[in-house]
Each structure stands twice: as structure tokens, then as C-alpha cells.
Amino acid sequence: MAKRIISFAVPLFIGHLFQQMYNTVDSLIVGNLVGKAALAAVTSVGSVIYLVVGFFMGFSMGAGVVIARDIGSGDERAVSRSVHTTVAMGLVATVIMTVMGVFGTPLILRWMGTPAGVFAEAVIYLRIYFMGSVGLVFYNLLVGILQASGDSRHPLYYLIFSSILNGILDYTFIRFLGMGVDGAALATIIGQFVSALLVLRRLMKTQDSIQIQIRSIRFDWLKLRQIIYIGLPTALQACVIDLANMMIQSYINSFGDAAMAGIGAATKVEGFCFLPVNAFGMALSTFVAQNLGAGKKDRIRKGMSFALPAASLAVLAAGTLLFFFSPFLVGLFNQDPEVIYFGTLRGRICGLFFCLCGFSHVSSAAMRGLGKPVVPTVVMLVCWCAVRVITLLTIGKIHHSILLAIWIYPITWTLSTIVYVFYMRHLRQKGLY
Question: Using CB atoms within 10 A of its CB, is residue 92 exposed (0-12), middle (13-18) or buried (19+)?
């Protein structure tokens, strides 16, 4: 059981590693070749980008659960309908996201209180990013289809290629063509588009039930409802959490570009620490959904008993390393002492609590696989959103401190972990797994 989950999770882990490198290269090159203000601009829009990515990853996970369940039941026609509904959904989403993102960028950044010194560069970066949204949307949705079938290797190959391409283009555009944040954004969308094309080619050439045929792309309303039932709570969960994070980013912005750059750099490093969580979560969600479709509850129970503690221990080890090496790691982005100070403060406070965040994430993924997407959504909305926002609007108004914007994360991770422990025990007593 553990071997199967690990064999599926390892390629996902490596893929997420390259995905994180993909997301971090912009900040590394911009911070070292352009400067502190440009680094602040790029990292300050991270919460907006995470909101968008999280929304479509939520629907990707929803589609993946439905497809995995259809595969587990052996119904190839149902699999095909789910796949083509997912693609049709992606086409509509791309148009909406591009229009709203391009025209709404200045309003979003003003709402976040982005300082005037970095506002113009932040607008440029985010607008170009939204212009390339077709690659972002389709890469996430199409990879979800492949992973639902148990294929985590091919997405890895494509991501490695596009990550290397992104790094080369980043350096070329900024170092040799004299571009700034616009070059970093352009390199990102080119890499995303290429990776999406590679996954699409794979899905069109495969002979399995997940094959995409252009003439079959249409909405199957039953499958669309199933995908929305699983995916919408997950997408909304990600969105509301990231909206809360945008409010926290707005609070951080009030401390200046050094705080923005330092904490932004620390969150980029944290992304690497959470790679085991993402891999175990996606692997467990697919594993649970397939075995639920096949009616094998004993395998679900064994899989969860392994994946939950394994993910928590792995991210605890990563967080411990971050605690000790934060000054060095943040310094890779920019050598300004203030930047390193703020980044180290974030890394050392949050690092030792990563295991709690990891447990919550993997528990949430397991519940999606069990067809219980609403509960983790409510837990995250209350613990990770409402508590954070209320804290900022009350204590944050009275006591204006950067420590509040940092400690608010470990506190809310603790709350969600307590809730999940009791709810998972409740599900087990009911015999759901």
C-alpha cells in the first residue's frame, strides 16, 4: 500500500519541485539582476497568482476525483464524458480569466495597498501573466486528467522541460535583452504554454479512455455537476484562503519594500518545504477516489494511515532546515540586510509549525477523495480565513506589528489541525473508511 502511494507521489514531488523552481526563478533573477524594488513587485503579486492558480487547481482536483472514480468503476464512456467536459470548462475559464485579469489588475493592486514605488512594475508583471492564462488553465486541468489515470511520470517530464525553458528565457530576457519584470513574466507564460501543449499532445495521442478528441469537446451536464460538486468547494476554499492572504499581504505592504521583498522571498522558499505535502495530498486523493469507486475501504484506511503521518514528518524535517538556514536562503534572492532580516523572521517563526499545515492539507485532500469536499472547505474558511481576517481587522488596527502578520499562520494551522483530528476520527467511526 505504502509502496504504491510512494511510487505515485515521488514523480509528483519531483514535478512540484520543478514547478516551485519555475515559480521561484523569476524572483531569484529579478532580485539579483534588477533590484529590491523589482523583487518586491514580483513577490507582492504572488498572493494574486496563488489565488488564480488555486482556483483552477481546485477544479482540476474536482475533475480528477470524478475521472479517477469513473476509471475505478471501469466505465470508459463515463471517463470520456468527464474528460471532454473538463476541457470544455477550461476553454470558458480561459476567456473569463484573461479578460478579468487584464482589466482588473490595477484595481486589485490598489486594493492591496501596493506602494507607489513598485506599483507600475507589479501591474506590468501581473497583466502579462494574465495574458498567458491559457497555458496556466490548461496545464493544470490537463495534468489533472493524466494524474487521475495514475500517470504522474509524463507531467513530470513536461514540467522539467518547461522549467528549464523558463529559466533560460528569464536570464536571456533580463540579462541580455535588458528587460525587467516584463521579461520575467513573458518567460513564465511561454513556459506554461509549452507545457500545456505537451500535455495536450499526450492526451490526444493516447489510446486509453482519457484520450481527448477535438470533435468530442462539449459539456456533459451530469459530469459538469459532479465536477462542480467536488471542485467548486475546493476552488472556493483556495480562493478565500488566498483572499485572506491578500489582506495579509496588504498589511505587510504597509511596512515597506524591504518587508515585502524579504517575506516574499521566504514564502518562495517555503514553497519547496511544502512539496512533500502537495505530492502526498494529490497521490492520496487519487488513491482514495479510485478505491472508493472500486469499493475497497480497507485499502483506503491503510493508505490514509500511511500518508498522513508521512507527509507531516516530511514537512517537519523541511521546516526544521528552514529554521536554521533562513538567512542564507533568503539572501539568495537579495543581499540587502533588511530583506534578509524580514525573511529570516518569517522562516524561523513558521518553519517549526509546518507539520500542522501539512496535516491539514493532506487531510483535506483525503476528504475530497472520499467525496466530502464541503467539510474541508468550511474548516479552511473558518480557521484560515475568518480568523485571520478578523485578527487583522481588530488586533491589527490596535497593534501594528509585522509579527502579527507572521504568527497568524502557525496559530490558524493549529486550529485546523485540531478540527481535522476529531473529524477524521468521526468518519472512521462511521465506517466511511
Answer: exposed
Q: What would the grid cell of residue 246 be?
A: 491578500
**Of the candidates 282, 347, 292, 289, the residue with the CA atom closest to the CA atom of residue 320:** 347
CA 333 to chain centre: 21
What confidence category does residue 187 fall into, taking pLDDT thresholds of 50, 70 and 90? Answer: very high
Q: Which amino acid is at 16?
A: H
* Residue/partner pairs of 378-384 with CB below 8 Å, 24 or more apart: 379/416, 379/419, 379/420, 379/423, 380/237, 380/240, 380/241, 380/416, 381/237, 381/240, 381/241, 383/412, 383/415, 383/416, 383/419, 384/241, 384/244, 384/412, 384/416
- DSSP letter for 208, please: S
Q: What are the φ/ψ torsions at residue 390 (nearest 5 degrees)?
A: -60, -40
> At residue 308, what is the residue type?
L
User: Within 13 Å and on the Cβ side, how many CA atoms surround 308?
Assistant: 19
On whether the CB atoms of residues 192 and 156 are closer than 8 A, the answer is: no
Average pLDDT estimate for 229-253: 80
Q: How far apart are CA 255 and CA 260, in angstroms?
A: 8
Cell of 320: 526544521
CA angle 167, 173, 176 (to 5 degrees): 110
432 — pLDDT class (breaks 50, 70, 90): low
pLDDT tens digits, 252-279: 988 988 999 899 899 989 988 888 888 8
Identify the band that residue 22 occupies on the pLDDT scale cut at 50, 70 and 90: low
Which amino acid appears at position 134 of this protein? V
For residue 88, what is its C-alpha cell? 470544455
Q: How far apart (Å, rounded) are the C-alpha atoms in residues 408 and 336?
A: 26
